[in-house]
Amino acid sequence: MTVTYGLAIENFTSAEGNPNFTGLIDYARTAERLGFRSLWAWDHLFLGSKQPFPCFEALSTLTTLAAHTSDIELGTGVLVLPIRDPALLAKTAATLQATSGGRLTLGVAAGWYEREFAATGSPFRSRGKRFERNLDLCYRLWTDDEVTGEWDELSFRRVRMLPRPSARPKVLIGGYVDRVLRRVATMGDGWLTYFYRADAFARSWKRITEHAEDAGRDPAELTNVAQLPICVDSSFEEADRKVGPFLAEYFDNPEWSDATPESAIRGTPEQCAEQLTEHIEAGVAHIALVPHRYLPDQVERIAAEVLPLLPGAAGSPVTEAVAR
């Protein structure tokens, strides 16, 4: 089995920080030079009230990185689909797909931060329905010769979105509950997880494959990406001491999901490789790592000391490094 590896980018920071485009460009170039296969941008318009979290918009950030890289894939992990106008999103994503040479993977989800829905005039309680509508319209605009019809308040009359992408962006669906897993199996190209332990991933991935079979779809058509924090250090204890505060400052873990800070990969290079192997054995196809505080030395250590210990990584004699 070919397993590939990517990195999350710091377009979203803690309340005490600010994203920096010069740093993001250097980070992206370093990731490509070291053989990572993808970069993943977080997506929020705004987040937090007493302590707002600074964030660069995901697609415009990836467009900038596309101009400074050549081969590395670019993904959103995940874009909040119900608050986006589907026509504008389809055009923006198709343009990024063209300018990047077909490197875009659009990770999408229904969202959870109610303030963003209120600010964009998007009904929060019907976000699941709006998610499905918006995704359906994006597919139509990317692939159909013309689109005609009424979808709620949206009216399309012989709309032709040109140029159409030579290949539409790959779409991964993020989420936790069973109805979302059914969407993955029937509407998407695969699943994108957030801070899942290997055993939790395996349980939900099994449900996705079952839903695909029930819908008459070959589960082999589906892929997946697991987003996992990582801290490489001299010992498990030292890494564990560092990773907790980082995750508490930057990330939330919804109570209704299996996402947990305990998913963090941490310890010596050998310990990190052992923990990542559990995810490979659970069926993960691509791992998007969130390096501890996005530090350059963490990125270098992951590439030089952890990935060579893993089957399917760049530089491994077991398999080739590219999966597209």
Automatic annotation (TrEMBL):
Pfam families linked to this entry: Bac_luciferase
Luciferase-like domain location: 13-285
Keywords, alphabetical: Monooxygenase, Oxidoreductase
Domain of life: Bacteria
GO biological process terms on file: alkanesulfonate catabolic process
GO molecular function terms attached to this record: alkanesulfonate monooxygenase activity
PANTHER family referenced in this protein's UniProt entry, alphabetically: ALKANESULFONATE MONOOXYGENASE, ALKANESULFONATE MONOOXYGENASE-RELATED
Protein name: Alkanesulfonate monooxygenase
Protein's organism: Prauserella marina
